[in-house]
Amino acid sequence: MRKYILQTGCLLLLLVIPGKLFSQDSKIHLGLKISPAISWMNPNEKNYSSKGAAAGIGFGFISDFYFTEHYAFSTGFNFSFLSGNLQFPYASSPDTGVMKRKYSFRYLEIPLMIKMKTKEFGAFSFFGQIGFGTGFNLRTKANDEFMTDENKSLTDKYNLSSGETTLIREAILVALGTEYKIDESVSLLLSLGYSNSLNNVLHGSNSKDPGLENRSSLNYVELNIGVLF
Asked: Given this model, what pLDDT does residue 31 score?
C-alpha cells in the first residue's frame, strides 16, 4: 500500500511540474484520441501459456506541454479496454483439469512521456515518444472454459475479485507518429504505440498446484488516431 501511495504522489507531482516549469510563452496542445489495440498476456510461471492476442480499444485526453520548440512533456489520461488469453492447470472441487481463460481488463491509465518532434515538412511533422504509464485497474472480467480430466467442458463468465488481480499496472511506453497541420490551431495525429508491462497483473496461487503462482504481464500495441488543438 505504501508503494502505491508513493507512486500516486509522484504522479501527482509530475502533473503539477509542467505548470511551474513552462513560461507563459510555452505552447500547450490539448486533444482527444481513440486507440484500437491488440493485447496479449505474457505468463511468468511454468505450465502457464498464452493462447493468442485479442482486440481491444481505448480513448482518452491528450495534453502536450512544449518547453522548447521541438520537445514536450506529454501526459493526459486513457480509458483502456484490453484482453488476453491464458491456459493453466486448474481445480474446482471435485474436478481438476485445464483452464482456458480470457481476461478482459478495464484500466484508467496516466502516461508520463517525453515527446520529440521534428520541424514541419509542408503540413507534416513527425515525432517519437518514450516514458512510463501507470494504469489503475477498474474492473476485470473472466470468460472461462474449463476442461476436466474426464473431458467434461464447463464454461462460466464473472467478475474477478480484487484479490486475483493487481490494482496497478506499470509500463514502459514508446510511440512513433506524425501530425498533419490543418491550420494554426488544429492538427490531426496518427501514431503507433507499444506498452510493455513492468509488473504482473495477476495475484494469487494456482488452485490445482499451490506451488505455482498466477503471474502474467499484459502487453499491447495500439494505433492512436486523434485531433490536437
From this structure: 97
Sign for the CA dihedral angle at 108, 193, 226, 26 comes to positive
- pLDDT value, residue 8: 47
Domain 2-228, CATH among 3.30.428.10, 3.30.70.1350, 2.60.40.3500, 2.40.160.20: 2.40.160.20
pLDDT at residue 168 greater than cutoff 80: yes
The rounded distance, in Å, linking the Cα atoms of 215 and 176 is 30
Closest C-alpha among 207, 209, 173, 201 to residue 43: 201
CA-nearest of 11, 20, 18, 28 to 133 is 11
Contact between 175 and 129 (Cβ < 8 Å): yes
Residue 205 DSSP class: B
Q: Rounded to an integer, what distance in angstroms lies between the CA atom of residue 17 and that of residue 112?
A: 12
Locate 72 and state its grid cell.
514536450
Give me the DSSP letters along 39-77.
Answer: EEEEE-STT-EE---EEEEEEEEEEEEESSSSEEEEEEE
- Provide the terminal-to-terminal Cα distance of the chain, rounded to the nearest Å: 38
